[in-house]
Design a protein that fits this description.
Rossmann fold, 2 domains, ArgF'-like (chains A, B, C), 11 helices, N-succinylornithine carbamoyltransferase (chains A, B, C), homotrimer, 5-stranded parallel β-sheet, 313 residues, alpha/beta, Asp/Orn_carbamoylTrfase (chains A, B, C)
């Protein structure tokens, strides 16, 4: 593993999951391993959980972390090569990434999609430009199309909550929202669940099909109730349409996940990456009840990041 | 002491004051006491002095501090239970507080009042929601109705500047301002001065009476000159009206505190929590003269916070 | 050296350059020298490179650094003495600087010019008010008229890239831009290059003459090609007019620096403080080619700051 931007293979995934679980038991076991090392956390978009959990992970390993919020207009980066920079972009990513690569041992970067330029977004253009020009290992803190630290934390959460020998049945269910939301969490969860050889079903309204690149191997089921029937884990997430790109479509039926939808499935656990819109995506009764693993997931973000940084060191 | 959000009793207050004075003499005496502990400083409103002094206090104890500015629109928190979150609030305080409680050993939070919803403000709703849902000890960095770290620093400042056997005579005087200012500093100062058994007089224009909950035991004197006559300490502060709530009333007379107001009282010291509007609240001659304790107060903020964190550890 | 705000003398400059070069070889050689010391980095304007490099420098010396962004409206500082503060400024620099001086061992401050009040700007009013009222050593992170940490890093870069016995020929060339840019980098570079006894030529369009205070001793050459002919180092930088102050003038000729301008000068190195507007100030071919020292300069910012902080300790 040179960079951490996506699911690579099941052996690496298993090794990271086991490492994360070990750090959860003893967070400071490698507390001097990263002494003298520095990680730069670069945010082109806002963050709270991701920033905090990654800083705590770094601290647990003795790595010094520095946060750079570059989401303000004044630090707008030019991403395209060869242009005459006579507009509002003040610095080219070639120069900024190279400087940051010279300052830090590891760079971690958050770069959301535009949701308007499909071709650029699906090529994961921004994070790839950083990788190309920084010259140091790069960790994705959520790119245009993936959120691998979230997915690793999700896999850790499933692992610690499923002790049976069979494959867990995992359901990814679309949920309502009022804004056009990126596909990154849904793409990554699908990529990792399939990669980890879980039995994955994705349920969503017609029109909300994700990029097949991430869902090959999953069952698509348009009837939410049917999909939930024998689920072990239900992952709730909104995303905007992939075609037409980044749009909110009109939807028939009620996609809010509440207790009624589970019928006699009393054992299914419910997951969400947070922040969650209560009573729009997920009901209070579920979030505050026994099914909910959302706080476990949030806590596991620390140990997922710690496993990745530890492996890079 | 589980949380630090208000004056509790005189024994605890005295113990914190003595501890703060000891830290002022030797700031690093407990420099490893907090090793491995982490405090999250959460700001729903801007801060400079409070943030810096609390971070320095934590550092003096070996506690790692992390700052989270949640005052931007993008992290707007829903505070009300049971609502359908289909508006502009992106995360519920139940979820955010629980995550943060899982990440940190202590949380410190700043949450100013709205000055428009009196009932919610006087119930100290926001900080109490954090306490309810975070599951870890909480320090107030100024809530809707109190600013206890400021008041503790103020008590430390009075203690180190008053060596007589009798009770000090303390005067809280209203000062002019151009904005509607919260009651928190005035409430807390009154609560702590009375709680510490000082002789407190509050002077302000008619209509600026504070919530009696905080001023029971104080003398109210509408004639500023009379109030100042034999004062040992004069605390200058603006606040908006409590009834009608959060309003600026028209005032007769001149309430700017300057040297003329003191008559033949040459010994009184002057305090202000800063930031101060020079020559509107307080004259340059006083701020830059021998009466002023404002820099002592600002410095003591470090040791007040340090005493509180040390006691929590 | 009490404060670090400008070029003082060649002995001090040489000593800082040598120290910076030594730190580049072994950044952690004095890693415990600053233990227990704290530096406050105060930004009245945005920063990325300066903030990061100064924090890394502090960390290399065991100095704890704290960043204070005071560029938001809510912390607007009153700079003028004696005024009645009944407008939008919330705190006076006398009070803020004194508090910060009480909290930190060293203060570093960035305060850009207004480019509208020439008299105030050229007196370096803001940083001088900080020095006057803070009571601790102050480092300039770029003031209204100078950027000495950048210039020190530039001198370090020239030193490590010029091994001949003769004086290096250094050219400062004006470059196009779309905004009105301060004079600080150009002033400081000129001040330091002349102070270090280099052979300095400044080339710019008519009307862009810098304040003579900084350029006395330099050759002014209005023909860019002629200036570049036998240059060893070419420093590219835009600045606005000094008279009329802060204005962008219409310019004849092409001032973009590209390879064609160099004729048969194959050895000249090109410098820029970054951020650079590619293909407006400097061509891609130069920035990405062998002439470019811009990444060296950026890296040397760490060791320049480290030399200054180390000397202050």
């Amino acid at each position: 593993m040179i960079n951490f931007t996506k699911f690579e293979n099941i052996d690496l995934a298993n090794s990271l999951i086991e490492k994360a679980l070990a750090f959860k038991v003893d967070p400071r076991v490698n507390q001097n391993k990263g002494n003298g090392k520095r990680i730069g956390l670069i945010f082109l978009n806002p963050s709270l959980r991701t920033r905090m959990s990654t800083q705590l992970a770094a601290s647990n390993l003795g790595v010094e972390s520095f946060v750079l919020n570059m989401d303000k207009e004044s630090w707008a980066l030019e991403m395209q090569d060869g242009v005459v920079m006579n507009q509002n972009k003040v610095e080219h990513i070639r120069d900024a990434a190279a400087v940051l690569g010279g300052y830090f041992d590891i760079l971690a970067i958050r770069a959301f999609p535009t949701l308007t330029n499909k071709e650029e977004d699906i090529s994961d253009f921004v994070i790839n430009q950083f990788i190309k020009y920084s010259g140091v290992p790069v960790i994705s803190l959520e790119s245009a199309i993936r959120h691998p630290l979230q997915s690793l934390a999700d896999m850790v959460t499933i692992r610690e909550n499923f002790k049976e020998k069979r494959k867990p049945k995992v359901v990814l269910t679309w949920a309502p929202h009022i804004k056009a939301i990126p596909h990154a969490v849904a793409n990554s969860f699908s990529e990792w669940a399939i990669g980890c050889d879980y039995d994955l079903t994705i349920t969503h309204p017609h029109g909300y099909e994700l990029d097949k690149k991430f869902t090959n191997g999953a069952t698509i089921e348009y009837d939410q109730t049917k999909a939930l029937a024998d689920a072990d884990f239900v992952y709730v997430k909104n995303w905007s349409a992939f075609t037409p790109y980044g749009k909110i479509l009109s939807v028939t039926g009620d996609w809010l996940l509440n207790e009624d939808k589970f019928g006699d499935n009393t054992h299914a656990k419910v997951m969400h990456c947070l922040p969650v819109r209560r009573n729009l995506e997920l009901s209070d009764e579920i979030l505050d009840g026994k099914r909910s693993l959302v706080q476990n997931q949030a806590k596991n973000r620390i140990f997922a990041a710690q496993a990745v940084i530890d492996t890079m060191l």
